[in-house]
User: Fold this.
Amino acid sequence: MTPLECGIVAAAGLVAGGMNSVVGSGTLVSFPVLLAMGYPPVVANVSNGLGLVPGSVGGAIGYRRELKGQGRRLLRFGIVTVFGAVTGALLLLVLSPEAFERVVPILIVMALVLVVLQPLISRKLAERNQDRHPHGGVPLLVGIFCTAVYGGYFGASQGVILLALMGIFMDEGLQRLNGIKNVFTALANLVSGLMFVFIADIDWLVVGLLAAGSIIGGLFGGRLGRRLRPAWLRAAIVVVGIVAIVQLIVR
Assistant:
């Protein structure tokens, strides 16, 4: 990898880390970059997920005030997230690379649709004023498990999915939900990443560069991200998502 390519990967990690801390979908920036550099999709996916863990942790630290008083909720959701992430990682390892290449474009399209619809989802959630279970109940646990499976397998926009699910099933402020989202996207990536360390091909230079960039993005990117017009950010996500789909199709 040339010095220029190293800089590009680190910059992708910075942007992805900042996006993940604010709204999610950072993988839709860093994953296409790795594909464009010629990495096989599965290697790119595994290295990307592991490299973005520090940024997600940094994003969770940035929301530590919003996490106060949510200890029991975090424990409950955390156990479900671990089991889901393990399941998703096993699926990635058991299924063939060809299956991953066929499925991922569909997953990216679904993620892009969620990103585009996020404003509408947020408005609908704000209009809901009926009483809801304080921890979401069984339906939310099932949704978190399924989201963690998706996160262990691929993970683009798992944060968007989590925010939507928690907003539907819990009566809680968006900022507090965003703090929870950062914790569990980090946990899903960490659990699956630890499994991949022992049984999958990983490019450790990519992991290190993404980690370095994502830490900075996770800690400080949120402040900058809040100043961007949401429409611009969503437009950028859609563009890089389309780039990823094209990369996978034309390989």
Notes: The mean pLDDT is 80.
